[in-house]
Amino acid sequence: MEFLESLFDGKIDMTAIVVLSLICAVGMALGKVHIRGVSLGVTFVFFTGILAGHLGLSIDPTILTFAQNFGLVLFVYALGVQVGPGFFSAFRNNGIRLNALGLMVIILGTAMAVAFSFLPGMSLPDMMGVLSGAVTNTPALAAAQQTLAQMDLDATTPALSCAVTYPLGVVGVILAIIVMRRFMVRPVDMAAPQAEHVNNTYIVSIVADNPGIIGHNLRKISEFSHVQFVVSRIWHNGRVSVPSPDTVVEQGDRLLVITSRRDVETLEALIGRREQTDWNRSDVDWNSIDPTLVSRSIIVTRADINGRSLGSLHLRNSYGINISRIVRSGVVLLATPDLVLQLGDRVVVVGEASAVDKAAETLGNAERDLNEPHLPAIFIGLIVGLIIGAIPIALPGMSSPLKLGLAGGPIIVGILIGAFGYRLHLVTYATQSANLMLRALGLSLYLACLGLSAGPTFFDAAISSTGATWVALGFAITLLPTLAVGYYAMRRRRVDFASTCGMLCGAMANPMALTYANELSDGDRPSIAYTTVYPLAMFVRVLLAQLILMILM
User: Count of CB atoms within 10 A of residue 145's CB?
Assistant: First the structure.
């Protein structure tokens, strides 16, 4: 440390940059090491920071606090923006169930912490720190410390017990995921969810044989049903074509229908006999169905289309093409006329090649234009997120108001901007690599600072008898609720493995475990489940930390 200070002439800012960069670089390199197929990834930055702090490396406390908070805010905001477009549809379809399961995790862990506080040598403030570390929730720790300070009680021991139990809190959730995958998961649990969760559409072919719809056009048939669907192709006398709303359905016509999975049976009863052909396979060659029709994925890149509804573009009437579905941030959406398009949406278009080319010109389809970063939305989102997080929320019977804090405010604003930013003409699209870069940078900074601050006292506290007890109790609080609720979610509630992992990570406020869960799953199911559960889980944990101390102390 003295060498670094002398090298940079005592400039504390440059020294801090070197120390944090060194911790992040070493931690990320070690995080790539696989032991029996398991690696901790960016989580290793935290343990590298602890070791660096123990060896005497330190930086200016003001810079440390700033870097830690900035990293946390950047990570949760970028995560919120990524999953924002699919967040509300996921909440409508599966969010109540996921949040109920998340609350089960919280209640079980909190009940265990309160029960452990009656053990000899354990106090309720200590256990609130243990609970915060076991569930890796520093806002809950801050809330507990604030409550203790307002009650004129010592607020230092919760921070130490949190630091001691935090490492195993991180590892415990990852270990629970490993145990579930090894001993609890069945093949059906690894499959995509049956309910509309991530993929909001389902493709099915139906043969028209219901006399009630024969002779009517598609516009009239849609009026017969209360469900939404799109007919992308129709076979009549062996010839396939792209239908329009005025296309009349005759006896024996085959309709390729895109709808939500839960509405398939309704449309089967309305139209006729469902065929067994699986059109949802990833290897379906859509361009081989008929040589006169092509199917292309066109990217929306024109800024003037951002925020406009699909119906207002009149693409079907103008070019004679059909739009079957929209892919947004990995979520497949039904192409209804009232669907609002956003920059970066992938529009699946079916029609003749020349007509599809004209539709591509209208939508933009210039992928290189999306590589240009749109930074104003990021900075605006960070500002608004911090303001929201700082607003005090008064609750009856509590002497101090609650605050969403640095983690809660930005992630909620990120979700809202990702979902509705187009209404304010904010361009929120970012390439996947750019979003991952922001998330990785923010998370690594946060973990490096957190480990560095805990390093000097971590080992002394961990090897003491009290510290060992904290670690054991904290590990139990981490592991047992996650395993119990994880088993219940998959076996009783039929939640798929990826969404269960994301739900557990969100309930435990564990982004490091989320990173590991994402490596085990294709798509964004863990991230969507995480952000579905995280806002409510974070708020409840902060609330419980204060309520328990106020009621039981």
Answer: 24
